């Protein structure tokens, strides 16, 4: 925006119009190529155009928890809702936060809308349940037996050793092997973290037993001898044997609708593979956890998750850990179950009293913090209310898109006609510039669909149409400046160059204001409004790019053609028509150009 | 077109021109009248808030043979609330039921499907809680506040504070007019309307900025000359940018008009329609205010400055002296060898 140094910039642009044109041509080719390479040749359509259900949830602020609505909680909630919605077997459901306290759930068409709404709305359930049996996720598969060797021995062997060595080692070696396996639970500040104290040793020894079965997907069932009294029903056994956790549907169905006081079967991820469990009745509730955090333990240099229980929770937790500690693996473990899925299954080696505990072993920063978040928020960290639910069948979505496109086309046509009538030859520059702008907008939108999940919704289409006006505005500003210069009696070539710095400033200032409006709109608003603001902002930016890299250079080049330079009546730059001054004055003027130039800068 | 082009040239040279600044009090009066009407309408009639603000549901059905009257009856029976039914360009129906909450809407949808003999899956439902529109509106107000602060700061830096203040007043003026028209005509206010209203902010200022830019350029080095007062230069600037303002407004209005037409013609009361309607009204108001209100306001503010007062005195004194000599020196029209007065921003340097 700052006034350029006198004469330098214009001359530069004048001298190299080809370079700017080359840049924009390369950009267009690159974007188009990128679009085809990524196989995303159309912009992704939003739910309102493609059909589907869009649910807007608003986090409710609860009394006593003024700071509960924050970024971390919102993100945790998104993670949980995402897992739930995708647990329905929906692919490409999209869950995202918007604004400070909204979550938008977009579910493409062909999904049971009602089920989705139920799933999204209900509060997630988090329970601590004792493990009764564990097996590898897939049902006993014959081919599994053939491929246990490398990974099984790899992890099994060091484990056994670790039992005797300091407990810091197993956790680090386990990192590669799926964290759940090596997770161990203990009271914090226990005096025996490192030297193989009885407790940690026992934990590791115990864990050695399930390890082969977990990783070496070879012999799942044998390693899970259910003690009759603990296993609730034979039916559960049977279901457990059949359960295939690698199957998404079965996985989602496994823990569904089970009451906390009943035993259940559940799936969960162990490292890269799936595991399945028979779990006893819930002993501790998510609400009993007062706080949980993933932190780095400075002494051992590893990530752990600390838990703090409420008074009530501490009693319950002490009781269950006391019971579990006396048992054999895998029954000395308890599972942390979120929405029917096991998210962690640490082993216990002693009763943990005092309301504090920590889970260690094989965490990465991410996994520790995730678990910490899930634990501390019980389930969904916030409660949500449904603000709006929109269902759109694809047919009507298509209708709306069509209407939008027709409106856009007509709007464009009207603008083109107006420009042609008013600017004649010059209008072609504007039209081609609009086309360049359209190509850039389209390819960027298509690419953004893949890149940042941008979806073209109806308001976004509207924004794009409105932007036609903004884009055309900047040409008008420039053209009028050129015409003013011609009226001054200049010939086209100098007129084009002299008009540019002044037009450029106006264009930048006004586009900046437009962009500011779009940016503010984008940041403060929610849902559909954002699509509109986004398109508006994008096209405003592209307008600047097109005017600088295309319209101006093209004008410089055209000023060299006879058709325009001679002021052909159809060029839109006919000096006579524009009311330029008679040549007599022009010669006077050219005789003393210096002071005029000085003011131009 | 040659006539219009010619007009542009004559405007440019200052041969013709409307005395926007001189007659500003008339236009202030007009604007105040409109504003009062708008506020009165708002106070008396209020706004016709859409279901987004009251809570409710809009169902859009595919083509159906059921009549509007029958559908209204069915919808009211099914929901126990008032229903507004419109026929769409597609042959389907748009059934708007206010007072429904998102939980009960599902059962109503089922009932409607049976009544209208269409499958449930073919009905589009847009269910909103009563707070949804309010939230959008709240966010809109926040956005409005933030935007105004930012834009005033920006304009104060890019131009000067007087222009920033004038632009802000013009902006508020545009918003008031738009809201007033909504109140008077009884258009339904939806989140789409709010979006449109927010977009007007950008547009209204876009137009104002273009005019101010001309004014800033025209009034550069103004104190170094004694030919024109600030208000005269301002008036010249407005006239000089008039063609540009008209063109940019027309070009901006054309796509919006298409949107409005298509939105209204093909899809009744869709989001397209809501956005474009408020845009259309606001754009027109924005074009008017940047010419008739914003720039004259700048003049009023500017001419309070001692430097401008002094300039005015000097200019008038010089004119009086010239008149005494029987000469015309006020630069009206191309006179003698002083053609450059027509070019804004040139006068000072060209002075002998």
Q: Short description, anyone?
A:
The complex is a heterodimer of chains A (601) and B (352). Chain A has 601 residues and is of the alpha+beta class.
Characterise the protein shown here.
The complex is a heterodimer of chains A (601) and B (352). By secondary structure, chain A is an alpha+beta fold. In chain A, 53% of the residues lie in helices and 16% in strands. A 5-stranded mixed beta barrel of chain A has the order 4-7-6-12-11, surrounded by 4 helices. Chain A has a 5-stranded mixed sheet with strand order 9-10-14-5-13. A 4-stranded antiparallel sheet of chain A has the order 2-3-1-15. In chain A, strand 2 and strand 3 form a beta hairpin. In chain A, helix 15 (394-423) packs antiparallel against helix 16. The longest helix of chain A is centred in the C-terminal third of the chain and has 33 residues, at 492-524. Chain A starts with 7 loop residues before the first helix and ends with a helix. In chain B, strands 3-4-2-5 form a 4-stranded antiparallel sheet. With 352 residues, chain B is α+β, with helices and mostly antiparallel strands. The two termini of chain B are 37 Å apart. The longest helix of chain B is centred in the C-terminal third of the chain and has 32 residues, at 271-302. In chain B, 66% of the residues lie in helices and 7% in strands. Chain B folds into 2 domains: 3-48 and 133-340, Multidrug efflux transporter AcrB transmembrane fold (Up-down Bundle); 56-128, Alpha-Beta Plaits, CATH 3.30.70. At the A-B interface, strand 15, helix 15, helix 17, helix 18 and helix 19 of A face helix 1, strand 5, helix 6, helix 8 and helix 10 of B. Strand 15 of chain A pairs antiparallel with strand 5 (124-128) of chain B, so a sheet runs across the interface.
């Amino acid at each position: 925006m700052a006034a350029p140094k006198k004469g330098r910039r214009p001359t530069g642009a004048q001298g190299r119009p080809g370079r700017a044109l080359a840049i924009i041509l390369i950009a267009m080719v690159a974007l188009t190529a990128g679009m085809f390479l990524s196989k995303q040749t159309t912009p992704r359509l939003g739910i309102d155009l493609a059909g589907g259900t869009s649910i807007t949830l608003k986090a409710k602020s609860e009394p006593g928890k003024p700071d509960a609505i924050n970024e971390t909680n919102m993100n945790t909630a998104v993670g949980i809702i995402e897992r739930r919605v995708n647990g329905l077997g929906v692919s490409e459901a999209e869950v995202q936060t918007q604004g400070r306290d909204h979550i938008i759930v977009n579910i493409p068409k062909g999904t049971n809308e009602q089920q989705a709404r139920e799933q999204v709305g209900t509060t997630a359930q988090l329970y601590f349940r004792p493990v009764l049996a564990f097996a590898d996720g897939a049902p006993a598969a014959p081919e599994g037996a053939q491929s246990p060797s490398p990974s099984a021995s790899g992890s099994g062997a060091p484990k056994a050793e670790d039992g005797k060595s300091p407990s810091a080692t197993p956790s680090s070696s386990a990192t590669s092997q799926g964290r759940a396996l090596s997770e161990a639970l203990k009271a914090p500040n226990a005096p025996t973290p490192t030297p193989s104290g009885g407790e940690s040793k026992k934990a590791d020894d115990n864990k050695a037993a399930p390890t082969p079965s977990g990783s070496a997907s070879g012999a799942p069932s044998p390693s899970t001898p259910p003690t009759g009294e603990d296993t609730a029903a034979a039916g559960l056994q049977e279901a457990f044997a059949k359960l295939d956790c690698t199957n998404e549907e079965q996985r989602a169905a496994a823990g569904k609708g089970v009451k906390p006081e009943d035993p259940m079967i559940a799936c969960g991820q162990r490292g890269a593979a799936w595991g399945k469990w028979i779990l006893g009745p819930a002993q501790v509730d998510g609400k009993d956890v007062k706080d949980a955090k993933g932190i780095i333990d400075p002494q051992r240099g590893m990530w752990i998750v600390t838990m703090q229980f409420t008074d009530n929770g501490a009693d319950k937790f002490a009781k269950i850990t006391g019971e579990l500690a006396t048992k054999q693996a895998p029954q000395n473990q308890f599972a942390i179950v979120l929405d029917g899925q096991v998210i962690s299954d640490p082993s216990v080696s002693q009763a943990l009293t005092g309301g504090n505990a920590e889970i260690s072993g094989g965490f990465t920063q991410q996994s520790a913090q995730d678990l910490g978040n899930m634990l501390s928020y019980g389930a969904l960290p916030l409660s949500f209310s449904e603000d709006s639910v929109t269902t759109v069948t694809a047919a009507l979505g298509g209708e709306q898109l069509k209407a939008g496109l027709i409106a856009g086309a007509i709007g464009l046509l009207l603008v083109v006609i107006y420009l042609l009538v008013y600017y004649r030859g010059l209008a072609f520059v504007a039209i081609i510039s609009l086309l360049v702008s359209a190509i850039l907008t389209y390819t960027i939108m298509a690419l953004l669909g893949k890149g940042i999940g941008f979806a073209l919704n109806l308001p976004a289409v509207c924004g794009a149409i409105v932007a036609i006006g903004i884009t055309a505005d900047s040409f008008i500003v420039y053209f009028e400046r050129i015409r003013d210069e011609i009226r001054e009696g200049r010939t086209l070539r100098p007129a084009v160059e002299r008009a540019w710095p002044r037009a450029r400033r106006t264009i930048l200032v006004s586009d900046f204001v437009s962009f500011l409006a779009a940016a503010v709109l984008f940041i403060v608003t929610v849902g559909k409004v954002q699509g509109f603001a986004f398109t508006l902002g994008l096209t405003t930016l592209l307008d600047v790019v097109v005017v600088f890299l295309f319209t101006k250079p093209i004008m410089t080049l055209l000023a060299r053609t006879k058709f325009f330079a001679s002021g052909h009546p159809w060029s839109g730059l006919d000096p006579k028509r524009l009311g330029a001054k008679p040549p007599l004055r022009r010669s006077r003027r050219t005789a003393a150009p210096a002071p005029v130039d000085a003011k131009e800068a | 077109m040659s006539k219009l082009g010619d007009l542009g040239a004559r405007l440019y040279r200052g041969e013709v021109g409307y005395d926007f600044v001189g007659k500003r009090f008339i236009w202030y009066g007009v604007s105040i009248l409109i504003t009062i009407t708008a506020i009165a309408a708002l106070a008396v009639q209020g706004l016709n808030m859409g279901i987004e603000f009251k809570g409710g549901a809009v169902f859009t059905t595919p083509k159906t043979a059921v009549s509007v009257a029958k559908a209204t009856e069915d919808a009211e029976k099914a929901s126990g609330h008032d229903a507004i039914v419109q026929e769409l360009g597609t042959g389907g129906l748009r059934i708007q039921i206010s007072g429904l909450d998102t939980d009960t809407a599902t059962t109503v949808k089922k009932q409607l499907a049976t009544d209208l003999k269409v499958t449930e899956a073919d009905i589009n439902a847009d269910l909103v809680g009563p707070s949804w529109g309010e939230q959008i509106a709240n966010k809109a107000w926040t956005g409005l506040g933030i935007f105004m602060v930012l834009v005033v700061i920006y304009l104060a830096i890019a131009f000067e504070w007087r222009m920033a203040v004038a632009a802000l007043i013009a902006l508020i003026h545009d918003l008031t007019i738009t809201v007033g028209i909504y109140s008077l005509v009884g258009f339904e206010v939806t989140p789409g309307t709010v979006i449109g209203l927010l977009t007007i902010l950008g547009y209204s200022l876009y137009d104002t900025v273009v005019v101010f830019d001309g004014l800033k350029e025209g009034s550069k080095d103004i104190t170094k000359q004694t030919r024109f007062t600030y208000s005269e230069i301002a008036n010249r600037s407005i006239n000089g940018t008039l063609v540009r303002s008209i063109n940019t407004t027309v070009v901006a209005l054309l796509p919006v008009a298409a949107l409005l037409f298509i939105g209204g013609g093909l899809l009744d009361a869709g989001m397209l329609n809501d956005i474009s309607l408020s845009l259309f009204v606001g754009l027109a108001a924005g074009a008017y205010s940047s010419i008739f209100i914003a720039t004259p306001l700048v003049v009023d503010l500017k001419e309070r400055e001692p430097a401008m007062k002094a300039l005015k005195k000097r200019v008038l004194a010089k004119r009086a002296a010239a008149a005494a000599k029987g000469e015309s020196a006020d630069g009206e029209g191309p006179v003698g060898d002083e053609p450059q007065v027509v070019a804004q921003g040139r006068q000072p340097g060209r002075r002998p």
